[in-house]
Amino acid sequence: MTLAIILVVAAALALVFILSVTLSRSLQVSTGTSLATQIQPIDVEAFRNLFDPVEHDYLRRRLPAAEFRLVRRERLRAMAAYVRTAGRNAAVLVLMGQSALAAGDVQTAEAARQLVDNALLLRRNAAFALLRIYVALAWPNFDLAAEPILRGYERLNRSAMLLGRLQNPAAPVRISATL
Amino acid sequence: MLQAHSFLWHYLWTAPNVLLFALALLIWRNGLRKTFPAFFAFALLSSLGQFALYTADVAPSVSAESFWRVDWGTLLIEGSLKFVLIGEVFAQIFGLYPSVARLGRLLIGAVGIALVLTSAVAAAYAPQDSHFGIISGAHLLDQTIYLIESGLLVFIFLFAAYFRLKPTHFVFGITLGLAISACVHLATWGIAANGGLPASRRVFLAFLNMATYHVCVLIWFYYLLVPAKVSTKAAVPLPENDLDIWNRELKRLAQQRMVQP
User: Does residue A147 sit within a domain?
Assistant: First the structure.
C-alpha cells in the first residue's frame, strides 16, 4: 500500500510538471522583440578582471591569507553571477534562433540552427562552469577551467552575427556583443 | 454505468483504438510515415493489438487464461513500441543539435538504467494482488512499463525545458499525449498491482485508464490536424554594442585558465 501511495504521488507530480510546461509553452510570447529585450549586458572588463591571473597574484601577495580567501570567495560569487547571466542570455538566444528556424530561405534557417546549437553549447558549458564554481567555493583548491564557456561565447558571437546579417542586412549586427 | 461490459465500457475500449487506427492511416496519407516511423508503427500495431484483446474479452469461446496470454502479448509489443517511440521523440527534439544530443543520450541512458533498477525493486516489493500469477504478473509488467516510460518522458520534458528547446508542433503533441497517458497509467497500475483497491472496485481504474487514453488519442489528433500558430517573422531589432571589442576580449579570455589561490 505504501508503494502504491508513493507511485501515485510520483505520477501526480510528474503530471503537474508536464501540464505546467505545456501551459507555459502555450502562453509563451513568441515575438522576437520581447525576447531581445531580455538579453542582459555583461561588463566585459569586469568579467575579464575576475579571470586575470596577474590581479589574482597581486591580491594574494598583498592580502593576509584569511582576507585573501574571503576576497577569493567574493570573486567566485561574482563569477557565478556573470556565468548565470551568460546562461540566461544563451537561453534567450535559443528561443530567438528557434523562432527564426521556420524562415523561408535555407541560409537563414541554417544560420538559425547554428545559433541555437552554439547557444545550447554555451548554456551547457555555463551549467558545468557554475557547478565548478560552487565546488571551488566549498573547496578553494579546485581547478577551474574557463575555456569551454569562453569559447562558447566566441562561437555564439559568430552565429548571432551571421543570423543577424541574414535577417536584417541593413542593421548593425551586434546581437552577441551584449552577452 | 461504471461497470465492465456496459455501453460506456465498450465505447471507451473501442473508440480510442478506432481513432488511433484512423490516425495511423492519416499519417500514411499525409506522408509522415517516414518522418515518424515509430509513431506510425505504434498507432497501427497498438490499435490492432487492442482490437485483438477486446475480441478475446468479449468472445465467449476464449478462455480466461487465453485472454491473459493475449494481454501479455499486447503488453510486451506495446511496451517495446513505446520505448522505440520515446527514442524517436528524443531524436526529433535533440538530434538536430549535436551540442546537447550527446549529453542528452548519456543522461537518458543513465536515467533509463536507474528507472529499470527502481521498477525492479518496486516489482520485487509489490504484494501478489491475485491468486493467479499470470494476472498479478501482468499488473506488475504494466506498472514496470509505465514507471520507466513516465520517468523517461519527464526527463525529456525537463531536459528540453532547461535548454528552452521547443519541439515541433506534432512532436510536442506526441510527447504530451504519451506523458499524460504514462502518468495516469502509472498511478492506476501502481494502485492495482499493490493491492490499493479491492478487486471489485478495480473497474474504476480501468475506466480512468480508458478515458485518459481516449483524451490522449484526441490530443494526437489535434496536434496532427491543427497547424501550429505562426509567430511574427518581422526583423528583430538587435541590441546595440561593440562586437569587435567583445570578440577581442573573449579571445584573450579563452587563452587563459583560472588560477588557483
Answer: yes
State the count of interchain CB pairs (< 8 A) between A and B.
210
Using one digit for the tens of pLDDT, what is the confidence trace for B28-44? 999 999 999 999 999 99
ipTM for the predicted complex:
0.83
At A167 the pLDDT is 58
If we measure between CA atoms, which residue out of B112, B242, B135 comes closest to residue B193?
B135
**What is the spatial distance between Cα A131 and Cα A123, in angstroms, rounded to a whole number?**
12
The structure's pTM equals 0.82
- Residues on chain B touching A146 (C-beta within 8 angstroms): 253, 256-258
Q: Does B243 touch chain A (CB under 8 A)?
A: yes
Cell numbers found for residue B148: 520507466
Tell me the pLDDT tens digit for each residue of B100-156: 999 999 999 999 999 999 999 999 988 877 778 888 899 999 999 999 999 999 999
The residue segments making up the domain with residue A66 are 42-178
CB within 8 Å: A144 and B230: no
CB contact under 8 A, A3 and B125: yes
What are the structural domain ranges in chain B? Answer: 7-254
Do residues B179 and B223 make contact, with C-beta atoms less than 8 angstroms apart?
Answer: no
The position carrying cell 528552452 is B164
CATH number at residue A72: 1.20.120
In a domain, A11, yes or no: no
Interface-testing mutation among B89, B172, B250, B256, with chain A (most A C-beta atoms within 10 A): B250
**Closest-CA residue to B11 (of B203, B180, B211, B200):** B211
Is the CB of A14 less than 8 angstroms away from the CB of B154?
yes
Query: Is the four-CA dihedral B212, B217, B222, B224 of positive or negative sign?
Result: positive
B237 and A36: CB-CB below 8 Å? yes
* Domain assignment of residue A9, yes or no: no
- Pick from A41, A48, A99: CB nearest B249: A48
pLDDT tens-place string over residues B205-250: 999 999 999 999 999 999 998 887 765 544 444 334 333 444 344 4
* Residue A3 resides in a domain: no
**DSSP-H helix ranges across chain A:** 2-27, 32-36, 44-51, 53-62, 65-101, 106-138, 147-167
**Into how many domains does chain A fold?**
1
The pLDDT assigned to A165 comes to 58
Residue A95 reports pLDDT greater than 50: yes
The count of residues in chain A is 179
Which B residues, 187 through 226, put their C-beta within 8 Å of a C-beta on chain A?
Answer: 187, 190-191, 193-196
